[in-house]
C-alpha cells in the first residue's frame, strides 16, 4: 500500500513528534518581495488586498518559493489583516505598511460585522489551487493572526511604537476589549475551518506582538484566546496540527506551550536553543529560529548559525525556520544556499 500523505510528508511527521535526520524546513514570509518572480506577479493587481483575494495570483505566489527552493511546506499567500477586512474594517496597504481605520475604545465593536463573517471565499479557493499544485510530500500551511496581534492593528490603525491605545483599552475596559477579542476568535475559527476544509494540512497562528504584555495580560489576551481557538479546531479537525508563534514571549513560552494546546511552537530569534530544548521540546515540536539578518548576510555567518541551531534542536522533533519573516532585501541565492546546507548532515550536540 502506498504511504498516506502524512507518512511521506516530513513536515507533518515532525509536527506529529517524530525526530528526523534532516529537519523539514520552510521560512516565514517565504513568498514576497525578495523574489523577482513575486514582484512581477504583484503588479498584476492594484491593491495588496485585491492581490490576496485573486486566487490565480495568490496561489502562484504560494507556489513560487517552493518551486525555486524545494521547501517541505508552502504557506498560503494571504495576510493576517484579511480578518479585519472581512469584519468590515477598512484595511489598506501603503508603502509604509498597513493602514486601518482604527476601532476606538469609545465606540467599541459597534461598527464591525458582528455575525456572518464572510467574504474570504477567494482565500479558500487559493488553498484548493495551491494544494492541487503541490506534490504530496510538501505540506500546505494555512494561517491566521492571533486575536491579540490582530487587535493591535485594529485598534492602533497600523504599526505602533508603544501600543498605548490597545494596551490602555485592555487595562481600562477588559470587558469591552474582551468583546473585540471574542469577535476575532470567532472569525479566526471560521476562517481556519474554511482553510482546512479547502485543503490546508496544518495551520499556524502568528502572534507577532505577544511579547509586549505583562504576565496577567499574556494569560488573558494571548493564552486564553489561543486555547479557545485550538480547542475548537481540535474538536472538528483533531488530525490537523496547530503551530503557535508567540513572538517575543520570552519566559512565558513554557506556559504558552503547556496551556494553549498547540502541537508545535515557533521560537523567535532571541530564544536560546538550550532553553527551547529543555523547556519546550519535551512537550511539542519546536520550529525556528535563524535570525532573518543571518539569512540576509549569508556565507559563513549563516553556516555557523544554522549549524548551532541544528546541533541543539536536531535531536528532537524539529522544523527549521527563521525567528521572524524573510526580509525583502534578502538575496534569493542565500535561500538557495540555505536549502543546500540543510540537506547536509550535522552531529547532534
Ligand atoms: O510568505 C508568507 O509567509 C505568506 C504570506 C504572509 C504575508 N503576511 C504576506 C505579506 C504572511 C504569513 C503574513 C503574516 C503577517 N502579516 C504578519 C505576521 C508575521 C509577521 O511578520 O510578524 C503580520 C504582522 C502581517 C501584517 C502585515 N502585512 C504588515 C505589518 C505588512 C507590512 C510590512 C511588510 O512586510 O510589508 C504586511 C504586508 C504584506 N503581507 C506583504 C506581504 C508579501 C508585503 C506587501 C506587498 O508585497 O505589496
Q: What does it look like?
A:
The radius of gyration is 19 Å and the shape is globular. The strands form two sheets. It has a seven-stranded parallel sheet with strand order 1-4-5-6-7-8-9. The chain has 349 residues and is of the alpha/beta class. It starts with a helix and ends in a 6-residue tail after the last helix. A hairpin with a 2-residue loop joins strand 2 and strand 3 (97-100). Helix content is 48%, strand content 12%. It has helices at 5-8, 10-15, 36-42, 48-52, 55-69, 82-86, 121-132, 147-156, 164-172, 174-198, 215-236, 253-260, 273-279, 292-297, 299-313, 332-343; strands at 73-75, 91-94, 97-100, 139-145, 202-207, 242-246, 264-266, 285-290, 318-322. Residues 28-33, 42, 48, 75, 77, 79-81, 93, 97-98, 143, 159, 206, 208, 325 line the site of coproporphyrinogen III. Coproporphyrinogen III binds at residues 28-33, 42, 48, 75, 77, 79-81, 93, 97-98, 143, 159, 206, 208, 325.
Amino acid at each position: 500500500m502506498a504511504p498516506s500523505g502524512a507518512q511521506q510528508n516530513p513536515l507533518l511527521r515532525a509536527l506529529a513528534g517524530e525526530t528526523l535526520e534532516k529537519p523539514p524546513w520552510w521560512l516565514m514570509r517565504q513568498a514576497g518581495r525578495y523574489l523577482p518572480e513575486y514582484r512581477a506577479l504583484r503588479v498584476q493587481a492594484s491593491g495588496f488586498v485585491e492581490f490576496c483575494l485573486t486566487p490565480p495570483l495568490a496561489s502562484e505566489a504560494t507556489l513560487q518559493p517552493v518551486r525555486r527552493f524545494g521547501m517541505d511546506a508552502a504557506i498560503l499567500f494571504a495576510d493576517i489583516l484579511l480578518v479585519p477586512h472581512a469584519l468590515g474594517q477598512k484595511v489598506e496597504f501603503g508603502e509604509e505598511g498597513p493602514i486601518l481605520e482604527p476601532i476606538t475604545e469609545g465606540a467599541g465593536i459597534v461598527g464591525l460585522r458582528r455575525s456572518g463573517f464572510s467574504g474570504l471565499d477567494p482565500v479558500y479557493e487559493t488553498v484548493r489551487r495551491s494544494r492541487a499544485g503541490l506534490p504530496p510530500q510538501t505540506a500546505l500551511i494555512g494561517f491566521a493572526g492571533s486575536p491579540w496581534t490582530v487587535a493591535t492593528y485594529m485598534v492602533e490603525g497600523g504599526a505602533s511604537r508603544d501600543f498605548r491605545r490597545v494596551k490602555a483599552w485592555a487595562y481600562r475596559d477588559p470587558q469591552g476589549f474582551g468583546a473585540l477579542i471574542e469577535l476575532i476568535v470567532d472569525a479566526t475559527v471560521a476562517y481556519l475551518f474554511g482553510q482546512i476544509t479547502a485543503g490546508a494540512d496544518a495551520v499556524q497562528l502568528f502572534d507577532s506582538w505577544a511579547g509586549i504584555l505583562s504576565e496577567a495580560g499574556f494569560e488573558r489576551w494571548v493564552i486564553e484566546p489561543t486555547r479557545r481557538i485550538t480547542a475548537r479546531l481540535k474538536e472538528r479537525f483533531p488530525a490537523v496540527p496547530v503551530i503557535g508563534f508567540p513572538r517575543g514571549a520570552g519566559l512565558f513560552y513554557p506556559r504558552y506551550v503547556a496551556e494553549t494546546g498547540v502541537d508545535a511552537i515557533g521560537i523567535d530569534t532571541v530564544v536560546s536553543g538550550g532553553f527551547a530544548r529543555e523547556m519546550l521540546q519535551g512537550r511539542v515540536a519546536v520550529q525556528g529560529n535563524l535570525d532573518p539578518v543571518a539569512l540576509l548576510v549569508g556565507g559563513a555567518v549563516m553556516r555557523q548559525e544554522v549549524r548551532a541551531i541544528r546541533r541543539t534542536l536536531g535531536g528532537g522533533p524539529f522544523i527549521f525556520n527563521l525567528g521572524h519573516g524573510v526580509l525583502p532585501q534578502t538575496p534569493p541565492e542565500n535561500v538557495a544556499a540555505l536549502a543546500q546546507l540543510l540537506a547536509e548532515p550535522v552531529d547532534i550536540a
